[in-house]
Design goal:
Layout lengths: L3 E5 L3 H12 L3 E5 L12 E4 L1 H10 L2 H10 L8 E6 L4 E6 L7 E4 H9 L6 E2 L14 E4 L6 H7 L4 E14 L11 E6 L5 E7 L12 E9 L7 H8 L5 H8 L7 E8 L10 E3 L14 H18 L2 H22 L1 H9 L3 H26 L27
Parallel strand pairs: 1-2, 1-8, 2-7, 4-10, 8-14
Antiparallel strand pairs: 3-6, 4-5, 9-12, 9-13, 10-11, 11-12
């Protein structure tokens, strides 16, 4: 009788693992407390070239086509823009891809990943301890605060980062920040507050496709105030461009949520045995680098490959050793943004960064781009009253 695996958690990593195991002939069951794949919060995710290639390796071709239909690819992620809190673009960083990337909402991604697994997922199943001996291996893929991981390791696997995110989704307004047509945008504000903006403008005819929308999120030092989330987002961004406040006001009912950021408590070897860890259950990370979902996908594909090609004990040791090499790098990519956010809480440093540092960086990138190519310059000049930046007194420009 072959290996039988219980995957606790039908998130992005857990569902990817189920496909990868089945593709390699390994029997598995996924256990999840939700009623179905659509019962999830969360917003647009960034899948790297490596993650998308890994998904294409284990998913049916029909599911890969559905992902492309429901998401946006390289053509809509050509730059990363940095704006000040009044909406002026201070820096545009070109993004170049060596392979295919995907920007897609969490709900359609999870819905598509659940396809083909209907007979392998037990929805509505709450798991508080490793399932019984009918399974040879239990994979804790139940996210940040995993109960299975905590029991197996003997301590929590995540620690709070001291930052809270408040996010919402707004139906596509008549005018949007022009920079969102070409990629993602981050707004730098005073008092250690930042905001992130993302546009989901593409949608295909797949049933999982979502209507166009803009995701906004506000990240700030952990708050304890007892107030409604939209009011808290407004208060944290007092004095910011009125267009951001309009987006907050126009949020779809039920779409505004708060989530604390986490880092791993310690990325170190965990005990060997019939339980192993995957995704946020072992390496939770803030969304500031957009690497959480991609790293969980890589975890899943590596684990399935190892289990299919080695004896179980050797496979688990190999998987753990590999994860502990690449996961810390992914976590570290999320740290600089939070460090700078804390530093920019100092008024003098905030002014220096937005009025001097970012414009100088933009000029340097513009010169470098001009030197590399005789084509179009991708980096704009520093924003001014006559420039291409956003103006608080005017609607956000559209293209």
């Amino acid at each position: 009788m072959g290996l039988r695996v219980a995957v606790v958690g039908a998130g992005i990593g857990g569902l990817t693992l189920a496909h990868a195991l089945r593709r390699r002939g390994i029997d598995c069951v996924v256990l999840d407390r939700d009623a179905g794949p659509g019962a999830t919060d969360g917003y647009r995710l960034h899948l790297t070239e490596q993650a998308f290639a890994a998904l294409a390796e284990v998913l049916p071709e029909s599911s890969v086509r559905a992902l492309r239909a429901c998401g946006a690819g390289n053509e809509t992620f050509r730059q990363f823009a940095m704006l000040d809190h009044r909406g002026h673009t201070r820096l545009r960083i070109p993004v170049r891809h060596s392979g295919e990337v995907l920007l897609i909402g969490r709900r359609p991604l999870r819905t598509i990943l659940a396809r083909g697994l209907e007979n392998h997922i037990r929805w509505g199943t709450t798991v508080t301890e490793p399932p019984g001996p009918e399974f040879d291996l239990v994979v804790a893929a139940d996210g940040t605060g995993s109960r299975i991981a905590r029991q197996w390791v003997g301590r929590p696997t995540g620690r709070p980062a001291g930052v809270i995110g408040i996010a919402g989704r707004s139906r596509l307004p008549q005018r949007i920040p022009a920079d969102l047509r070409d990629g993602l945008a981050f707004m730098i504000g005073p008092r250690g507050v930042g905001a992130f903006l993302s546009l989901q403008a593409e949608h295909g005819d797949d049933p999982a496709a979502e209507k166009p929308y803009v995701v906004w999120s506000v990240a700030a030092p952990l708050q304890t105030a007892d107030e409604e989330l939209k009011q808290l987002a407004h208060r944290l961004t007092t004095g910011w461009t009125a267009d951001l406040h309009a987006l907050i006001d126009q949020s779809e009912p039920g779409s505004v949520a708060a989530f604390p950021f986490f880092f791993p408590a310690a990325l170190e070897p965990w005990p060997a045995g019939r339980v192993t860890l995957l995704g946020d259950a072992v390496h939770p990370m803030p969304p500031t680098a957009g690497a959480g979902a991609s790293t969980a996908i890589l975890d899943a594909v590596h684990l399935a490959r190892d289990l299919a090609t080695m004896p179980t004990a050797q496979a688990l040791a190999t998987y753990q050793a590999r994860l502990l090499r690449y996961a810390p790098r992914a976590v570290d990519e999320a740290r600089p943004a939070l460090r700078w956010q804390r530093r920019l809480a100092r008024p003098a440093l905030f002014a220096l960064a937005t009025e001097v540092g970012l414009p100088l960086a933009a000029a340097g990138l513009r010169l470098a781009q001009t030197a590399r190519s005789t084509g179009a310059v991708l980096i704009s000049a520093p924003a001014s009253s006559a420039g291409s930046g956003l103006d608080m007194k005017k609607p956000w420009p559209s293209r």
